Sequence to fold (228 residues):
Amino acid sequence: MEQIEKNIIQLKKEISNFEERYKRKKNSVLLMAVSKTHSVEKIKTAYLAGQRDFGENYLQESVEKISKLKDLDIVWHFIGSIQSNKAKLIAENFDWVHSIDKEKTLKKINALRKTSGKKLNVCIQVNSDNEETKSGISFCEVEEFLKKTKNLDMINIRGLMAIPKPEETHIAQLESFKKIKNIFDDLVKKGYKLDTLSIGMSSDYNAAIEAGSTVIRIGTAIFGERKK
Fold:
């Protein structure tokens, strides 16, 4: 059995165990395999092991992979930073975008998406720790962003994405994720139809699931270390 297949089976078992431990609904957490820098062959191996959702950061690389794997029923997620000149390729190739933090860019993607006939699923990226080196909007800007973009006809805003700063302990990770979950819950209570919280990676997905994540983004624990 390929190591990638073993890793996926183990991860899905752990996710199921965490769902039960934290009294989450069964199958409420989606495993996204982050395949940036990894080969088409590795993605195929993961696909044959039952994995369907894949996340990519680098646009040109990902478009080439999507083209080569177009016959497979893969759900493609873009999770990298977005400049305006990337809008066309993102609109044409992806099912999800998790890294939106500019109204202008989202409106451009919306206009370019019209030829596809299918809405693009979007998560707004929040900068939960206000780190200068990371993309994302602040917590206080999220509701205004939602109001300004709610009428885009080819966009389905599903929720929030965040990459909190690394924490050493489970308790610290959990507290960091809970801040994001609280913002998410407040928006839902206000009537915003959000159902996706994209938080948690290879080093902290346990705490993310406990906090309420619905999508965990896992690369290293599936594919091994990335090429430098």
